[in-house]
Amino acid sequence: MRIPRVLLAASIAIAASATAQAEDKGNGKADVSQAELKAKTDYCKTCHGLSGQGFRGSFPMPRLAGQQPEYLENQLQAFIDRRRTNPVMFNVAHVLSPPMLKALAEHFRDLNPKPLGGAPKELVAEGKKIYEDGIPKAEVPPCASCHGPEAKGSDAFPRLAGQLHDYIFRKLTSWDKERGQDKAKPDNSAIMGPIAHNLTEAQVRAVAAYLSYLE
Ligand code: HEC
Ligand code: HEC
Q: 12, 70, 169, 203: which sits with the fewest CB atoms below 10 Å from its CB?
């Protein structure tokens, strides 16, 4: 698939910031013990599901299974810095050490449960079209050009396959209120801002339904 020039520029910016972060964290202290890691992941799974498949409580807890480690770590850091606002995840994340962030990200990458499902099936076909072709009239590029043809993501681009449809809906309809909240420290969330903004609610529902069934 041909990737438009703006997307390439965006990817390069992401790659540069990822390298800078890797340097910052290069001198993290000793590794995390298996016992510490298990205690922590058991805790995460009380909300995110026993296999990291996500969970529907009074609101949707996102799937973490199969997530790209770099994206997952970026989000934990964004919660800690309050660039991404969420009171629950700030409390969870701000006590985690840099080596623990890395160990958690690797743990969840390796899980592969079935998607939870539950989205209206009649929206899937329209959602697939949006995912693969974008919406040229509204200047929405194909999601696949960044998130990958199977929505598995790569590096700082998140996996969307199997994500809870109601979680995706909530994130895309409140992007600018939750992500990139430190204007002095712009982050990768800026790439999704205009895309989330240009989608109608009906289009978000459709693409979220499609993604939620992908394995
Ligand atoms: C008390 C419930 C709870 C616990 C415990 C919890 N989380 Fe979360 N987590 C949430 C909720 C709710 C969200 C969604 C926040 C939002 O809507 O932006 C979330 C979001 C996340 C995200 C962002 C996912 C994405 O796709 O962007 C990551 C990463 C994450 N949690 C990792 C963890 C890890 C790792 C642990 C264990 C150390 C953990 N969480 C423990 C409730 C919890
Ligand atoms: C130009 C590249 C690009 C395109 C095109 C793109 N995305 Fe994204 N998307 C990203 C990046 C980068 C992130 C991670 C942002 C961050 O780290 O804060 C992201 C994050 C997301 C998230 C948040 C995931 C989570 O777990 O919270 C969703 C949902 C999403 N994109 C859906 C879509 C959909 C649907 C489309 C197509 C309509 C799309 N994206 C098109 C780059 C892109």
A: 12
Provide CATH code, domain 32-109: 1.10.760.10
Q: Residue 91 Cα, ligand 1 centroid: separation in angstroms?
A: 10
| CA 23 / ligand 2 centre spacing (Å) | 25
Give residue 98 CA to ligand 1 midpoint distance, Å. 17
Rg (CA), the chain: 17
Mutation to probe ligand 2, out of 81, 84, 147 (largest number of atoms < 8 A from CB): 147
**Token pair recorded at residue 13:** 């910016």
26-41 pLDDT per residue, tens: 444 468 999 999 999 9
Q: Which atom belonging to ligand 2 lies closest to the Cα atom of 203?
A: 38
Does the CB atom of residue 102 touch ligand 1 within 6 A? no
CATH architecture assigned to 115-212 = Orthogonal Bundle (1.10)
Domain ranges within the chain, ordered by starting residue: 32-109, 115-212
Percent of the chain, pLDDT > 90? 84
Q: Which one, of 154, 188, 192, lies nearest residue 83 by Cα?
A: 188
Per-residue pLDDT at 31: 85
Burial 94-128 (b: 16+ CB within 10 A, else e): eebebbbbbbbbebbbebebebbeebeeebbebbb
Q: Residue 16 has what pLDDT?
A: 47
Q: Find out whether the beta carbon of 75 lies less than 6 Å from any atom of ligand 1.
A: yes
pLDDT digits (tens, 9 = 90+) for 134-149: 999 999 999 999 999 9
